């Protein structure tokens, strides 16, 4: 009995690194995937950087809506930088080894930036609600000080919670396999490697997911319910179209982001398929950040006008 306990303790303490399987099940496509993801990553960096630059230099875009959008674009850059460079390195080396600390750090930053994105999307919905439903009070309610405070809350309010949760998860005993069937250290696949009873940890994850995913989502739904109700009361079709165009891009992003996040973090553990989970994660960590700049620029006349001005100055 004593020898068994020693062996179990040895197994638990010897896991000092994990192995990310990534896309090792399709070895013939490694370099093609590397090329695709590299182009996607550079596109995300370039498009979001252009949005930030345009908003910063164009006087017509010095409004709360675009202040929040510039923060959202910077957040997207941070979010993808946590996962894609590491994935590109693994595709090149064809080794997915990641240290225990690096895995914990990656999970912490993914959850931190993901939580900030949920809160920032809620702030952006509130901004549209005030602009459309209370236009006369908009300059007073959404003054620069309030905007900075809302953005600060969105960026930092989840930090202590995420750090605490990450420490809690990586304090669990890990024994047996150290192979993570994923391309980054995400919650569901890491939980599957933990030994013993993880019930309390899973309850904690659901509670945090409800606070940072479901409650903000419900606030967004309420905001848009009032926005749509207010838009329908407008007397002219042109007025309704103009009002809806200011929030349609944000609404599309909300549906895409919250849909995939809810499926990933609020799905019961026994129902999670590793292949499907990896595909969904690929969608919300890579595809949606790629689409977001296109959604916000192609559907936004102010951004397109500012972009043309910038191109005119750079390419006379």
Task: Walk me through the topology.
Blueprint: H1 2-13, E1 17-20, H2 30-57, H3 64-93, E2 97-99, H4 100-133, H5 138-141, H6 144-156, H7 159-169, E3 179-180, H8 187-191, H9 199-232, H10 237-265, H11 274-298, H12 301-314
Parallel strand pairs: 1-3
Antiparallel strand pairs: 1-2
Helix pairs in contact: 2-3, 2-11, 2-12, 3-4, 3-11, 4-6, 4-7, 4-9, 4-10, 7-9, 9-10, 10-11
**Helix fraction bin:** over 70%
Q: Based on CA inertia axes, which overall geometry fits?
A: globular
Q: β content, as a range?
A: under 5%
SSE string, helices as H and strands as E:
HEHHEHHHHEHHHHH
CATH architecture: Up-down Bundle
Average pLDDT metric: 86
| Tally of domains | 1
Instruction: Evaluate the radius of gyration.
Output: 22 Å
Strand order of the largest sheet: 2-1-3
Text of the CATH class? Mainly Alpha
Name the CATH superfamily classification: Rhodopsin 7-helix transmembrane proteins
**CATH topology assignment:** Rhopdopsin 7-helix transmembrane proteins
- Per DSSP E runs of 2 or more residues, the count of β-strands stands at 3
Main structural class: mainly alpha
Report on this model:
- The protein is mostly helical.
- It has one domain: Rhopdopsin 7-helix transmembrane proteins.
- The chain is 76% helix and 3% strand.
- A 3-stranded mixed sheet has the order 2-1-3.
- The radius of gyration is 22 Å and the shape is globular.
């Amino acid at each position: 009995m004593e020898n068994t306990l020693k062996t179990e303790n040895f197994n638990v303490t010897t896991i000092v690194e994990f192995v990310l399987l990534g896309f090792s099940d399709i070895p013939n496509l490694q370099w093609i995937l590397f090329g695709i993801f590299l182009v996607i990553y550079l596109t995300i960096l370039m498009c979001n950087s252009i949005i930030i630059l345009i908003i910063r230099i164009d006087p017509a875009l010095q409004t709360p809506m675009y202040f929040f959008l510039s923060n959202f674009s910077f957040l997207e850059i941070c979010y993808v930088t946590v996962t894609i460079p590491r994935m590109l390195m693994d595709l090149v080396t064809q080794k997915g080894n990641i240290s225990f600390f690096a895995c914990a750090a990656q999970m912490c930053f993914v959850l931190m930036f993901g939580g900030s994105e949920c809160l920032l999307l809620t702030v952006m919905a509130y901004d549209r609600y005030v602009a459309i439903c209370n236009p006369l009070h908009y300059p007073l309610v959404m003054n620069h000080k309030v905007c900075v405070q809302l953005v600060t809350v969105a960026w930092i309010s989840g930090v202590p919670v995420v750090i605490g949760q990450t420490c809690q998860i990586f304090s669990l005993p890990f024994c047996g396999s150290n192979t993570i069937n994923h391309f980054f250290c995400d919650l569901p696949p890491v939980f599957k490697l933990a030994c013993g009873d993880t019930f309390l940890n899973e309850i904690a994850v659901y509670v945090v997911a409800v606070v940072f995913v479901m409650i903000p989502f419900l606030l967004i739904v309420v905001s848009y319910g009032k926005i749509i109700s207010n838009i329908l009361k407008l007397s002219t079709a042109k007025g309704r179209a103009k009002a809806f165009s200011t929030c349609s891009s944000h609404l599309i992003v909300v549906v895409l982001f919250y849909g995939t996040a809810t499926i990933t973090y609020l799905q019961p553990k026994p129902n999670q398929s590793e292949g499907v989970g990896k595909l969904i994660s690929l969608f919300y960590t890579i595809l949606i950040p790629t689409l977001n700049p296109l959604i916000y620029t192609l559907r936004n006349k102010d951004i397109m006008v500012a972009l043309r001005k910038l191109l005119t100055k750079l390419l006379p």
